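Annotated sample (chain length 142).
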Amino acid sequence: MGAGVSAHLWPKRPQMVGLLLLQGLAEIPDNARRGLPVQIHLADPDRFAPREEVETWQAAAARSSIAAEIFKYSGAGHLYTDPTLPDHDAATAELTWSRVIASSLHCSSRQAVTPPETAGAFPSPVQTRRPGKPAHRHPRRG
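Output written by the structure step:
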């Protein structure tokens, strides 16, 4: 689902600063910005991202001149970063997150990308504040 959402939004946001795809590929739009950092992390093999599709994507990335990095994790299950699922692989997930944090996608001037803090939990709920309004939590996140 995440890569599908990214594929839908990417052409509508050509000035985005980077793209992180976990466990899936997104079609590269014609208006992809030259040099856009794109990082992809995939299980290998992965039935949702077969080797032929990954090779085709890599060739398209080279033609588009985005700055693509693809990391493949041999033996990991498709959703290896999710600690609530049987596919979870703690060591591979940690390696993935360390690569994300070390990359150009992670910058102190933007909100940090962090791994889940505990099994089954995601980073703390986002708090938003409108001028003149008290801070509130996103209704779906508590």
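Annotation: Residues 2-137 form a domain with the Rossmann fold fold (CATH 3.40.50.1820).
Annotation: The chain has a mean pLDDT of 79.
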